[in-house]
Design a protein that fits this description.
By secondary structure, the chain is α+β, with helices and mostly antiparallel strands. It has five helices and seven strands; from the N terminus they run βαααβββαβαββ. A seven-stranded mixed sheet has the order 1-2-3-4-5-7-6, with helices on both faces. The longest helix has 17 residues. The protein is globular, with a radius of gyration of 15 Å. It starts with a strand and ends with a strand. The model has no long low-confidence stretch (mean pLDDT 92).
């Protein structure tokens, strides 16, 4: 599979928002985005990329169509991560799921991290019930590290979200 990662622009916001569904909201965003909010978020990602720090994100294009999103955050400040860990997050639009898009995007981002010399390990934090994300981690060669209870993210009932942490040496 050949995918392309490109920085997202305001022109991509409508397609990005159209690709959100209940699965995206459940596992990644916690709510549906708006065009204005999405454009503002893309601006932050672009500023971070220009400065070489903070979270950076890319649209994932497959066959000329926006098929998803992937980002990386080298701060290492999330539950379950250690200094030098780079957190990866991703989503695939419903029409492209099950085709290997997420795995291809993760492989590409890890290659970029290696080339940039960013981080010691790539990390994927996934709720154990998110079988698609767990499969991506395993398919891409990540190893299970630990299970953690989030100190920030909670379920509707207030209980902490539990995540499994997978890592890959860079």
């Amino acid at each position: 599979m050949i995918i392309e990662l490109r920085p997202l622009t305001h022109e991509d916001a409508e397609a990005h928002c159209a690709g959100e569904d209940a699965e995206t909201v459940r596992w990644l965003t916690g709510g549906y985005g708006t065009i204005d909010g999405t454009c503002a978020y893309f601006d932050v990602l672009a500023e971070n990329a220009a400065a070489g720090r903070g979270k950076r994100g890319y649209g994932v294009w497959w066959d000329g169509r926006l098929a998803g999103y992937v980002d990386y955050d080298p701060s290492g400040e999330l539950d379950g991560l250690e200094p030098g860990d780079v957190n990866l997050s991703y989503t695939v639009h419903p029409w492209a799921r099950g085709s290997g898009v997420a795995s291809a995007a993760v492989v590409e981002v890890c290659q970029r991290l290696r080339e940039e010399g960013t981080g010691r390990r790539a990390a994927i934090r996934a709720e154990p019930e998110n079988s698609a994300s767990v499969r991506v981690a395993e398919k891409c060669g990540f190893q299970y590290l630990r299970r953690v209870a989030s100190s920030e993210d909670t379920h509707d009932d207030g209980s902490p979200i539990i995540m499994d942490v997978y890592v890959l040496d860079l």
